[in-house]
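Reply to dn_fold:

You asked what the input looked like. This is it:
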Amino acid sequence: MANLFDKVKVGDLELEHRVVMAPLTRSRAGKERVPREMNVTYYKQRASAALIISEATYILPEGIGYPFTPGIGTEEQIKGWKKVTEAVHADGGKIFLQLWHVGRISHPVLQENGKKPVAPSAITPKGELFTGEGMVPFEEPRALETSEIPGVVEYYRLGAENAKKAGFDGVEIHGANGYLLDQFLNDSTNRRTDNYGGSIENRARLLLEVVEAVTNVWDKNCVGVRLSPAGTFNDMEDSDPSALFGYVTKKLDETGIAYIHVIEPELSNRDKYKVDGEVVSPTKHLKSLFGGTVITAQGYNLETANAVLESGAADLVAFGKDFLANPDLPKRLKLGAELNKQESSTFYGGGEEGYIDYPTLEQARAAKS
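and this is what came back:
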């Protein structure tokens, strides 16, 4: 039975343990949206992760949904990320870039020339979005024309190519959390009548085309996909999530990619994921359909992480907020040491406070002595 501190192989990578740093949007790349020295320090501090998955990184300006998030489309952004990867590698770490397009989770004030955000269908999400100028209600997106979709796929390919130039060890395709690829998957947001809508096979088409494009740049052993079965974040819902994500996972298994990264639903939504009428864990279900590595995520602690590994339902566990607040999280977990308190007011945006000033275990103990 596996535990967090057993070695594991993911694709071609030999990892010393199974504590993954989850992708964490921190909105600290500045107005230029280019990784800078503060970001280099942040990732370097966390190089002891078995694998770092970078914050979500937009592949083209149309895919921007939040202030101060980084991209991977310009020479300046590639150079900025290269400093990050070099710093992580210098400390023995491994890092994948997460490729991102937000789709409808944007607003005209964040789009070039005030254009409407794009989506599979012109369905306005419920709620509001932070634009840097306060909270604003979402507006109706524009449905992508069928003829535009190959261009979107090409930007994922270019993002993957640029990630290679920046020195990453691989890429993760963000197919979760209500962003563009997830919007195409779920029937609540995809009402298309072309080859990208209707049946599960059609709704999965864009994600699979993106995977094909990315694996034409990267070896399949260096590619992962993040999924959020039965997730409701960003106003998402599907009428039959186990059928949808079961199909998607089987098709991803056929591609031979290194891993899938499964976000468990919030506790309040876990009864929505059923197989043959029985409520099951999406991670456990999809693990039974996928021959590669499975990473699981959703509020795990030391005890629950070891339990899911011991059960065989997953191979690695991703930690988000705990890694945000504890740069040396693997060490603290291994020792059973106390974790730093998370400061939620500094999660998104700002400067060094709440970003690179969280103490290591040694620093925290020294401060108390």
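The chain has one domain: 8-368.
Hope that clears it up.
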